Each structure stands twice: as C-alpha cells, then as structure tokens.
Automatic annotation (TrEMBL):
Stretches assigned to the Histidine kinase domain: 20-225
Name of the molecule in the record: histidine kinase
MF terms (GO), sorted A to Z: ATP binding; phosphorelay sensor kinase activity
Keyword set includes Signal: no
Domain of life: Bacteria
Keyword vocabulary terms for this entry: ATP-binding, Kinase, Nucleotide-binding, Phosphoprotein, Transferase, Two-component regulatory system
Species this chain originates from: Paenibacillus sabuli
C-alpha cells in the first residue's frame, strides 16, 4: 500500500516540488535583475533595452511569486491585523500606477472595524492583485472605490468597486481558472491565487457586475470571533 500515494499526498508532493522550484528560480532572477539595473545605470542614456529586460524579469518574478502561493497555500504566519491599515498600505504602494492610468482611488471605511486574523503578506498579495486588476480594467481612467465595514461581529467585508471594462456574464465563471487572462501581458494566475488565499483564511471572494459600469470584487474575512480554527 505504501507505494501508492493518495491523491491529496500527490497534490502536496507536487506542491512541495513547485514551491521548491519557484524558490530556486527566484535567487538567480534576483541576481539577473541586479546586474541588469547596473547595466542600465551605465548605459549612458541608451536605456530602452535594459528597461524592457527589467520589465520582462519582473513578469517572471510575478509568475513565480503567484505560483509559490498556489503551491503552498496554507496560512503560516497568523497575526491580528487592522484591515484598514493593510488597505491603506496597498493603496499607497499602487498610488503612482493609479495616477499613471488616471485612476482615482477613494476609500470609505466604517469607523469601527474589528481586527482579522491573517497572514499579512498573503492578504496584502490579495489586495494588491484586486487593486491592480481594477486599475488595469480602467485604461482610460475612472474611480476605484474601496469600502470596508463589519456586517456583524463575525465578518469584515471589503468591496472594490471599479468603473472599468467589466466582465461579460458568461465569462464570470472562468475567473480563477489558471492562465485565464484577457490581457496581452497578463498571466491569469492572480485571481486563482486570491481564491486560494481567501480560502485558507476561511474567507470568500466574489465578483459582481455593477449596474452601470465595471465590477465589484467583494472579500469577506472572518474576525477572531469566527476564525478560531485558522
Ligand atoms: P491577469 O491580471 O494577469 O489577466 P488575473 O488572474 O489577475 O490575471 O485576472 C484574470 C482575468 O480576470 C483578467 O484578465 C480579466 O479579464 C478579469 N478581471 C479581473 N479583475 C477584473 C476587473 N476588475 N475588471 C474586469 N476584468 C477583470
Ligand atoms: Mg491580475
């Protein structure tokens, strides 16, 4: 019997392998990025190729980091965090990208928000992905509204309401499918990673079309009241 791995064991063996591989790819990638940056600085005004190389290296890096989460989706480092702070940090980090796309980010938080037990790094990755997707959905600009409130003592709800291109009804089911992307430079791993992370936080992620324009992404996270088993 020992020679047969159960399906879940096979999956976790595959996950280990994938995580290991991703980690191994990252180290040489970091070195490559460093040297490329150095060459760019010394290129004497002839920077275009190096900029393209940096962009492509960053694409590989993003694929690898999203893949790493898929391979090891379990929550490892739990802390009680203020969702508002996480949201504000991400909004600040992506501020210049928003400005470049003429996207205005408006935040509306309830005065009282309970802390949520989470792996801060992972939850930030979710927020980064959702906000990036929203910005990318508004190439001609628009507004992204970020709301956060506690519907009860048991859950915090965060909504990202954009005015972007939206998603046709029949394509909604494809979200979270690996490599499903409608973007020229997309990889279609972001939403899948978000689903995994939300699942491992005992939370949910939903997509809804807005009545006028764009979509709303809704995240629900359990508070300490309901997440004792995390
Ligand atoms: P990527 O961003 O690399 O395409 P994702 O997994 O992040 O991959 O997203 C998958 C697809 O879901 C996108 O290509 C896009 O078609 C759709 N999508 C995600 N978020 C939005 C959004 N806010 N508005 C419109 N489409 C979206
Ligand atoms: Mg994306």
């Amino acid at each position: 019997t020992e020679q047969f791995l159960r399906n879940s064991d096979k999956l976790s063996a595959l996950g280990e392998l994938a995580a290991g591989l991703a980690h191994e790819i990252r180290n040489p990638l970091t070195a490559l990025r460093g040297f490329t940056q150095l060459m760019k600085a010394r290129s004497g005004g002839n920077e275009t190729y190096f900029e393209l190389m940096l962009e492509e290296l960053d694409r590989i890096n993003l694929i690898v980091s999203e893949f790493m989460v898929l391979a090891r989706p379990e929550v490892t480092h739990i802390e009680y965090k203020d969702v508002r702070k996480l949201l504000d940090t991400v909004v600040a980090v992506l501020g210049s990208q928003a400005v470049m796309s003429s996207v205005e980010i408006v935040t509306r938080y309830a005065a009282e928000l309970p802390v949520v037990p989470c792996d801060e790094g992972q939850l930030k990755q979710v927020i980064v992905n959702v906000v990036k997707n929203a910005i990318e959905a508004m190439p001609e600009g628009g507004r992204l509204t970020v709301e956060a409130y506690a519907d009860s003592a048991s859950h915090v709800t965060v909504r990202f309401i954009d005015q972007g291109v939206g998603i046709p009804e029949d394509k909604l089911v494809r979200l979270g499918e690996p490599f499903y992307t409608t973007k020229e430079k997309g990889n279609g791993l972001g939403v899948m990673m978000c689903f995994k992370i939300m699942e491992s936080h005992k939370g949910t992620m939903r997509f809804k079309s807005n009545p006028d324009k764009g979509i709303t992404v809704e995240l629900k996270l359990p508070t300490s009241e309901t997440a004792e088993a995390l």
